[in-house]
Amino acid sequence: MEQSATPINLSKDQHRMIVIKKEILEYQEKIKMLQREYQAIKQKTETQVESKVKEHKKERRIRSFEFQPSKVDFSQMVQDKYSKIRLHDMPFDQQELDERMYDRKYVPINNIENTMQDGDINEDWVTIGVVYEQTEPFAVDGGMKIQCLSLTDFQPNGTIRLFLKGSDCVQTDNMLGKVIAILNCDISKPTQNNAELALTLTSSLLLMEIGKSVDLGFCSGGGKEQCKQFLDRRAAKYCAAHQVAIYQQARNKRQEFATGDRLFTVGNPENKHEKKKAFRQHDRNASYQIGKHTIVAQGNSVQIYNPPKQPSERILTEKEKAGIAMILNSNSHGGKVYRKMMGIEEDENRVNVFGPNALMKMGGDPHQIPKKKPKLSQPDSDSECELEII
C-alpha cells in the first residue's frame, strides 16, 4: 500500500518568511515594470528634446534666396570696363557709369586687402561684384536688421561678404545674379587666418545696381541635393570637386586606368603658378565682429550671436557689510591684505595687540599688559646684551 504524504507543520515565523518572500518577488516585478516604463519615457523625452534643438538651430540659421536664371539677350550684352564682368539689363549706359566713377578709384575684390592701410582704404574707392548668395534680413537686439550678401568678380580669391545694416539698407528683393557697385564701405577683417574679408554698409546711397551678370552659374553636380558652388559658366559646368568625382567614375569603368595610381587635378598640371593659386583660396568659414554682435558664417549659412549681458552689481546685506567692516578694521593678516587691495594706507597709531587667547598660549597674563614694550639697551664693548624694561 502507498503511504500518504505527511503534511509539514510550519511555525509562524517560517510561514511569515514565505509570505515576505512572495511579496519581495512581487515588488521586484513591479520595479522591473517601472524601470521599463521609465526608460521608454526617457527615450521619448530625449527624442523630443533633440527634435526641438534641431528646430531651434534651423530657426537660428538664416535662410538664403534661390537663384533664378533669366534669359539673356546677347545683342544687348556689354562688358564693364572696370571689373570686366559681362552685363545685360543695365539701368543706364556705360557713359553714365563713367560719370559716376569719375575721380574714384576702382579696387578689385581680390586686391582690397593689399590696398588697405591701417584697416581701411584712405581714398574715394569703389568695388564691383556679382551677388551669388543672399540671406534674408535677420533682426538683432534693438530692432536693427542685418543682411548678408556674398559677392564675386570671377577672379582668383575674388569673393567677399557684404553686411547690410539698417532697415533702409537691407534688400527684400532677390539680388542673386545682379551686379552691384559699392562705394567707401567699412572693412571688417575675420578673426581667422586665410578667411575672406567682409564689407559693412549702413546706407543704401552707397550701393548701386549696374546690371545683371551673364556668366553667373552654379555647379550641376550633387544629384538631388544641388551643389551650391557658384562658377563662371564660360569656364566649366561643374565645380572642381565634382569634376574630380566625375573623372574618377569614368576612370573606374576603364580597365587600363582602374589600377593606376596617378592623382587627378583640375587645370594644367604644368602650370605651377595656377596650381599654387588654387591652394590659396579663401576659407568661407569665418566669424566677424560687426558692431557689438558676432556674426559666424559657415559656407552659405550665417548665424548671429548677441553680446552677453553685463551682470548687475549685487547689493550687500547688512550682515555682509558688518563683516567687511570688521575685517577692514582688524589688525589681522587678512585685514592688512584687504586694506592693501583697497588702497588704504596703514595707520601707524594702530594698536598691535594680541588677543587674550594668543597671550595665554604664549604664557602671558591677558589681564596684565605692559604699558611699554621691552627695549634692548646698548651693550658695552665687553658686556653682554641686557634686557631691561623702562
Write the layout of secondary structure elements.
Layout lengths: L11 H49 L17 E2 L6 E3 L5 H7 L4 E2 L5 H4 L9 E10 L3 E2 L5 E8 L6 E7 L12 E6 L2 E3 L9 E4 L5 E7 L2 E3 L11 E3 L7 H13 L2 H4 L13 H7 L6 E6 L2 E6 L2 E5 L12 H12 L3 H9 L14 H6 L13 E2 L10 E2 L2
Parallel strand pairs: 3-4, 7-10
Antiparallel strand pairs: 1-2, 2-11, 4-6, 4-8, 5-6, 6-7, 8-11, 9-10, 12-13, 14-15, 15-16, 17-18
Helix pairs in contact: 7-8
Our measurement of the CA-to-CA distance between the termini, rounded to an integer number of angstroms, reads 123 Å
Radius of gyration from the alpha-carbon trace, in angstroms? 41 Å
- Write the CATH architecture name of the largest domain: Beta Barrel
Average pLDDT: 76
Tell me the number of structural domains.
Answer: 3
GO molecular function, one term: DNA replication origin binding
InterPro entries: Mcm10 (IPR040184), NA-bd_OB-fold (IPR012340), OB_MCM10 (IPR055065)
Region (Disordered): 362-390
Coiled coil: 17-44
Tell me about this structure.
The protein has 390 residues and is of the alpha+beta class. It is built from nine helices and 18 strands. The protein has helices at 12-60, 94-100, 112-115, 240-252, 255-258, 272-278, 318-329, 333-341, 356-361; strands at 78-79, 86-88, 105-106, 125-134, 138-139, 145-152, 159-165, 178-183, 186-188, 198-201, 207-213, 216-218, 230-232, 285-290, 293-298, 301-305, 375-376, 387-388. A hairpin with a 5-residue loop joins strand 5 and strand 6 (145-152). Helix 7 crosses helix 8. It is flat.
Question: How would you briefly describe this protein structure?
Answer:
The chain has 390 residues and is of the alpha+beta class. The protein has 9 helices and 18 strands.
